Structures are given as C-alpha cells and as structure tokens.
Amino acid sequence: MPKIMTLGEILVEFLAETKDQSFAKAGNFIGPYPGGSPVIFIDQIGKLGSPCGIIGCVGRDDFGRLVIDHLKNDGVDANFINIVPDNTTGSAFVSRKTDGSRDFIYYLTNTASGQLDPEMVTSEALSDCDILHITGTSLFSPKLINATRKAIEIIKANGKKISFDPNLRKEMLDIPGLWGALIEIMQQADLLLPSEGELNLLLGCDDQRQSVEKAFTTGRNLKEIIVKQGKNGCQYYGRKGNSLHVPGFSVEEVDSTGAGDCFAAAYLHFHHALMDTEQALKYANAAGAYAVTKQGPMEGNTTLQELDNLITRKA
Description:
Layout: E1 4-7, E2 11-16, E3 29-35, H1 37-48, E4 52-59, H2 62-73, E5 81-84, E6 90-96, E7 102-107, E8 131-135, H3 142-157, E9 161-165, H4 178-188, E10 191-192, H5 198-203, H6 208-218, E11 224-228, E12 234-238, E13 243-246, H7 259-271, H8 277-291, H9 304-314
Parallel strand pairs: 1-4, 1-8, 2-6, 4-5, 8-9, 9-10, 10-11
Antiparallel strand pairs: 2-3, 6-7, 11-12, 12-13
Helix pairs in contact: 1-7, 3-4, 7-8, 8-9
C-alpha cells in the first residue's frame, strides 16, 4: 500500500459555541480540538490504515502534545513533527454560520506553525513517500511556500505523485505570493481536488468545464480532477475526457470543518489501493458526509467500518 505524506500547519481550533456568533463581542468557545487542514487529512488517512506521516512544527506545550498524541493514536508517523521551544503551537478560532459558511481568525505566522522551513523538508522524511498531499491553507507565508516547493522537488525527483487541494480561505486571499504558488503547484499536481468554484477563481474562467480544460492544458502531469460538491457529491474528470458524477449522502450537518480533507483522504486511500474510481469516490463522499455529523475538525474522522455502515444505511 502506498505511503502518503503531507506537510503544513499543525494547530488547535476553538469553535464558537453557537452559530452566527460574532468574533467582535464576548462569547463562549469550545476547544481545543486538534486541527489544521493537513492534520485532519493525514489523521483520516491513518484511521483508514494507509501508512502515512506529516512534516510540521508545534510548540513545546500542551496544545502540541494534544495534536501529536492524537495523530500517533490514529496510526500517523509523527517523527517529522518538529518541536519548536521558542514558539507556541498555532491556533484558529472558528465561527460557523447558519448557511454553512465559516469565519476564521488564524494565529499561524508567528507561531510554531510558521517555523516550518525548507531545511526541515528532507529526503529522509520523504524517502518512502508515494503520494504527497498539499493543501492551499499551508501556503500562508513565503517560508511555507518554499518548504512546499522543496517537498515537490524531492517527490518529483523520486518519480512519485502530488495531490493538491487548493482549499481557499477568504482570510488568506491577500497573502503575498499565494496566487502564484497556487497556480505553480496546480501545474505540477497529478491529482487536483478543488471545491466547487475554486478552479474558476484560480484560472479566471466563467464555468467549470472551461476551467477543467484549462487545468489539463496547463498541468503537464495532471491526470484527474475531482470537484467536491458537498452534500451533492462530486464530479470527476479524467485527462482523456471521461467524466463521472457520484451523488453524495444526505446527513444532518453539525460542523462542516474538515469534510473536504476527509473526502480527499478517503479517495487517495481507496483509489490508490487499486479500488475502482467510482467506488473510491463513493467512499470519499461517505467520509465527507460522516465528517459533518460531528462537532470539531477531526471528531468526524472515521474508520472503514463506520464508512461501510453509513453507505449501507443510505443505500
């Protein structure tokens, strides 16, 4: 079974206790929960049983220990998580809206999360990596962008694959160098996993079909594009012009944080374990659906048995 790796921000999240709760006035928050897009992704990979690991940084504090212990318990290799004694572990505050959207306040750049630099991305860390998954939330500083570039160079030199989820956050859109980095990584990816509308935004296109065609034209390695559509499932596009829509699962949504990361993890686990594409997408939809039924970014990460149970109940 291929080994899957990721890199980027490792943090804890605090969730607003009620929906539509404003950051601009006093309110109750629940947490800390282990979080961060690459952390959620790799933890889901671990729970499904694929060999996996993460490169990142935490502080020498209880928040860092919380995340590391959680990852190790779910089978994730934490040997390449660097403990930075002079910085605290990163954090994020999340407010959920009635319409399903979310607002974030991140504390990343001046925390341990922001200390991940190219020197920490080594050939040793990626020596047995078959698939490197990159998420756009990890490109929040020039240092992180350069660390990601180095990881891609190592992976490509080893003849292995890149999976990329743009994972755009409105709170990050003004970061210097972000847009260029997103396009650069997209052009080197083997698998692209945008949410609906992200590809249009990145490539300046008016509709999804146009943006898909442009992505395949500019991405020399790109073989697959999977557009995540939330409760409506997903739309698959292959380089040869084949496409497939796989419907989602109807569940009661509690917290959508991490659903896209769980989707990506499940697809990589199942498809790259040589499962049929349509069946792998069905499991990916189930993982995304299961994730939204729990409060907390990683509380909805799931096992194979739980996915099978969900698919059976919704059949």
